[in-house]
Every structure is written in C-alpha cells, then in structure tokens.
Amino acid sequence: MAGGMEAGDLQMIGEGLERILADAPLEAIDHAGGVGEDMNALWQTLYENGYPLLCANEEHGGMGGSLGDAAFVASITARHALAAPLADTVLAIGILSACGIEPAVYRIAISDPLNEGAPLAHSTQSDAVLVFKDGRLRLEPHSPGQVEPLKGAEDGAAPRGSRIEAMEDIAAPNWLTAEAFHALAALVRSAQMAGAMQAVLDLTLTYTSEREQFGRPLSKFQAIQHHLSDIACETAASIAAVEIASDALAADPHCGARTIEEIAIAKIRCGQAAARVAAGAHQAHGAMGFTREYKLGRYTRRLWQWQDEFGSESEWAIRLGHAVLAEDEPALWPRISAPL
Amino acid sequence: MFQFPRFAFDAEADELRSQVRTFLEAERASGGFVPQADCWVSAADPEFSRKLGSNGWLGMTWPKEYGGHARPMAHRFVVTEELLAAGAPVAAHWIADRQTGSHILQYGSEEQKHDILPRIAAGECFTAIGMSEPQAGSDLAAIKTAARRTDTGWVLSGRKIWSTGAHFSHYMIVLARTSPAEGRNRQVGLSQFLVDLSLPGVDISGIRDLGGTPHFNETLFEDVELPADALLGIEGNGWAQCMGELALERSGPERFLTSLIVLETAMPVIARHADDRRAGEIGSILANLRVLRRMSLGVAELLERGESPATLAAVVKEMGNRLENDVVAKLRGVLAGIPKAEWPDELGTLLRDAVLHLPSNTLRGGTTEILRGIIAREMGMR
Ligand SMILES: Cc1cc2nc3c(=O)[nH]c(=O)nc-3n(C[C@H](O)[C@H](O)[C@H](O)COP(=O)(O)OP(=O)(O)OC[C@H]3O[C@@H](n4cnc5c(N)ncnc54)[C@H](O)[C@@H]3O)c2cc1C
Question: Of A86, B104, B249, B355, whose CA is between 20 and 30 Å from A6?
Fold first, then answer.
C-alpha cells in the first residue's frame, strides 16, 4: 500500500482503539459526544489518544494517516457501535489537513454536497459541520443542543439548514470536487457497514448457539446454518470491497475518477450486503432481535441508515452503470479485470 | 471471520494479459472460435487446447522438468480469466489443467509425472473427475466403487456418473473404496486411482444435458485391472486428497465468469438504450463481479503459499454461483423493452444457452446447500 502510515503502525493504533472501546461502558458507547458542551469521558479519552487527528498531516499535529485509513478506523468504531462521530471527524480533519488547514479539534459532522436535503448524521452530537459547496470547503459552527433528532434515525441525524458563518472557508484544491468529497464519505460509510456486519455475525453466532428450541440449539438447524453462511459470505465480500477501495485511495490520495469508481463498488456491495445480513440476522434472532433492548438493533438500525447516507447502493449503481455505458466501446471486463 | 488476503499482479502478468487478449482477438477474428456461455464445460475444442499448449498457457505453474512453465499462480489466473471472459472453447483441457495435473504433480509417481504432465501442458491429454455415483452425490462417502489388491496391482469395479468430458478424456481420477468404513466413519478406507480410460473393462456412455449437449457421462468399470502405481497418493487417504482437489475446483474464476460473455455481447445494444434502470443493473453486476474476483484472487494467493483454503473456496463458489444466476436474470430484465431486431445476431442463442445451463451452476462441484454446510462447520455450528 502506498501513502499513509506503515501497516504495522496502523495495526497498533487499531488495537489501541479496540481496547478503549471494549473497556468503555455501554452508556458511554451509546452517548459519547452527545448533547452539550461537556465532552464525556470516552470522547475525552479518544481525543487525548489522538484518534480524531489520525489522518491529519504530521505538521498539523496528526498521525499522518492517508484518507483511506479513515475507513480502517470507521470499521472498528462501527463494530463497537460507537455513537460518537469519530469516523466522520477523522475524515473531516483529514480532508481539512490535506487542504492545508490546521484543524482545531471539534466533533465534526459531514454534509453531503450531492444531496443537500439529506439529514445530517451526528447532528445532535457535533459542534461543527464540514460543508463542500460551490468549490469551497467550509467548516461551519453547529449547536448540537438545539437540534431535534429525526424520529427513527440513529446517531442524532437531523435536517439542517445552511449557515452564513464559518470557522474556515477556503477555495477547495482542484482535486477536491463535490464527487470526490461525496465519495470519501461514502467510503467511510461502507467501512462502517462492513464493521457492523462483523458484529452482527458474531452476535448471531453466539445467540443461535445459546438459544434452544425443540431441545437443541438453534445453530443445529440447517436453515439457521444457511442464514449464518449467508451472513458470513456477505460480510466477507463487504470487507474485500472496502479493502479494494481503501487500497485504491491509498495509492491515489486525490481520489480521482478511477478511485471514485472503486468506492462506488464498495458502497454498492456493502449496501446490498447490509440488507441481506440484517434480514438474515433478524430472522435467526426471532422476536428478541426486534426489541429495542437487545443489542442487534444497535447494528442493524445503523446498517439501514448507512445504506442511504452519501448515496444509496442503487444511486451509486446507476451512476457507475452510466459511466460504463457511456464509453465508446462499452464493456465490463476491462473494469472487472483492472489492476487492484 | 473469512479474510481473503491481498494480492497484486506483477508487470509480467500485465504483459501476459495483453498477449492473451491479442491472441483471443486474432482467433475470434479468423473464426478460430465462436464465443460460448459456460465455455469451460460446454465448449471443447482439442485444436484450440493445443494452441494454448503451444503458447505455454497450460500447466503454467508446474515445474519445467514436467513440461510446465514454473510461473506463479497469478499468471495462470490471468490466462484462465481472460479465456473465460472471451467465452473461448476451453472445456477439453480445463479439468486436466485445473486440478488433475496439479494432483498428479502432488501425488503421482515420477514416471506418471514425466509421462502425463507434459502431454497435459501441450494440450494433448484430457482428464475427467470420477467422484459421483448414482447413489452417492452430495453424500460422496457413500460411494460403492471399490478397488481390490492383486499380485500385480488393483482390480477396480463400479460405476461413476456425471463425469464431465469423460468421452474425450484419456484419464480419470476415480475415488474408490479400498477398505471398509469404520463404523459410522465412512471417510476412512477411500483411495484415489489414476485410471487410463483406454483399459479393457472401461465402458463410457454419454449423457446429454438439459440443453441437449453430450457433456457428461456414465462410466462402468468391470473388473478393470490397474497397475500398482495407479494408486494415487496414499492408500486410505482418498477423502483428504479429494477435498484438496475441491479447493482447486471451487475457487477459480469459472465460478463467476461463465455468463459474462452473454452480458458483454449485449452491452452495445444496452448502451444505445441506456436509462437509469438499465444502468443500475449494470453497475450492480459490475460491483459484484469485481469484488468476487478480488476474493477469488485471495484464494489463489493462499494456494500459491501452499495452503489448502477449502472453506474460502466454498465461499467463492457459493457466492459466485448465486451471482451467475442473478446476472442472467438481471440481463433478461435489462433487455426487456429493447426490440429483438436490434439485438446482435448471436445474443439470442447465447442467452438461451446460458439459461439452459443455469441449474448446473449451483450443483456441480458441490451444491449450494453442501457449501453452506461447509461454511457453517467452519464457524463451529456443526
Ligand atoms: C453439469 C454437471 C457436471 C458434473 N460433473 C461432474 C464430474 O465431472 N465428476 C463428478 O464426479 N461429478 C460431477 N457432477 C456431479 C455433482 O458433483 C453432483 O451433482 C453433486 O455433488 C450433487 O449430487 P446429486 O446430483 O446426486 O444430488 P443430490 O446429492 O441427490 O442432491 C439433490 C438435492 O438435495 C440437496 N441435498 C443433498 N444432501 C443434502 C443435505 N445433507 N442437506 C441439505 N440438502 C441436501 C442437494 O443440495 C440438492 O439440492 C456434475 C454435476 C453437474 C450438474
């Protein structure tokens, strides 16, 4: 992999993050970076360990990770169902730093330039929003306490109007187009879906081995085994899809057209897998999985929301398909067999 | 749970790819072949196989002393995926090049390796798989074909069925029982034999498939006398050897590229009628194929490292087979509304052929249900 940090360093950073999240109380995982000015202890810990600055340049006090490394962190936070906007913040600060702005650390939500009416994820948890508009990159202030989250939405997603004031407002470099910005966020969502699917797989394996009906564990029923096989296959495909895209981004940090296509593939594949994985896991869990209390919903609700954020699998598929069909000699094989 | 390692092609692989593409374009242009769906099982052309052999594109990974070309797995992958994508007639040598040859390399005697492998690599020697029997399909350990030791070697009797290409093959690897099962453990006492199909007592009769092509066969072994060295590998180790063979059989690009040629043929006319609905299906198929190819390459990487990634191969085959069926179904949807008069000439035939082959994808090489069972076992459910 080109660019970014050494694989070994990234691995260690990931393990550190895993430890922090595994040790954190559920309450903090569900509410870290929640309403109000007072960051709770978990966000403070993440901040003190430098995680928000993972993808910032070293001269900006960051760890020098590539934007593709944001996907790596995103997958971990999703596997732990972390509500706080760490993944979005890592990406936002990475983008700001790549554009020469030394980032002050806020909890940053990301607004979708290709879908302006879309709810803003982490709206009730963030104190700044990164916006790309008319070729300008803006970091706008945000008051999470004044936001009413949408009913049925996760992570404090809420509608948001545009702002006049901004903490940062610069002309974006040429490479950073609305499409590239949208794609970078889509990669983070893809990685989050892949991470959440891993958690769903583990949870469903455990649940079906413990719950008994007809005198034996559910896991002994062939129909249940086939649901789990499906979940495992779709999860494996999602991980592979995210790897293709983040490798492409590591080799092409300015997220050119080819890299955007690889991200399209990841968002399509993960979005499709998310539907299948969520359905299979809920089926295998029975009524227990349909409760607010039980853990499964913390993952599946997010899977459904992430499918739609920054372009649904169908939207990306339409765009990708048109790109292929618009060629002089339209063909799939050159793209399927393109170098990885 | 299931991680597929990363994989990168070297510069030589890229060079090789363009050579193969140039060759295929020239062959197609000169009428050397007409593209076909499911080409690795239904389009056998010994002449074409010999051309590939003389280009050095068979037995690529085997040592040079056995007629191979000592190239990495990645190079073989390039050649096979390009051939499949073009719908080239590769059925004659496919099984020999993919699994029988590697199997002989691993378990055969020096004499067999020197005798048979160079002929496979030249595209002159073809082989078949003798696992299934009339009463033993998914439950492979239920086979009844048996081999008994004699003073000079073995005597083989029994019946194999569904052997693809046995009617034009020179050898078959036959799984046979050499000693009784131990109680409920039926996987012991099985052995593999490399059987010369020209021997007396071997009787092959063709079976036409759903589309009418004579494709697979029933093979009767009536007290066939085999030399001692026909035993492949270790007596009683047949089950494990078979499973190793299946890792080679299940993970390759033929598990998701058999109907690509149909779609590719349709692309120009779809492009002329491009709309969001059609583009969406094309984008979705592209995404799925690209990711599966990455996973299949991950298995090739593990094979290159000398591992036998049986479960990951099952994952690739299970997803690949489902995708194949999906591609054909979606293609029919995409073509809906485009007047037949505008279709390229060969599209109708290709599509009908692909439809008639659909049921076989999720059966041959292990059914979907069996593969899911393998995957579940790996997760500790069974
Ligand atoms: C085109 C084609 C080419 C082939 N080529 C070869 C070849 O070259 N050599 C060779 O040896 N064989 C070959 N086969 C045979 C192939 O391996 C078998 O078809 C396969 O193993 C299934 O066996 P069966 O057909 O007897 O079906 P069965 O085993 O009778 O299965 C029928 C159905 O029952 C299901 N089933 C069976 N057992 C279970 C279970 N435990 N749990 C749940 N469901 C179950 C199966 O999944 C399937 O859906 C070929 C088959 C085809 C279609």
Answer: A86
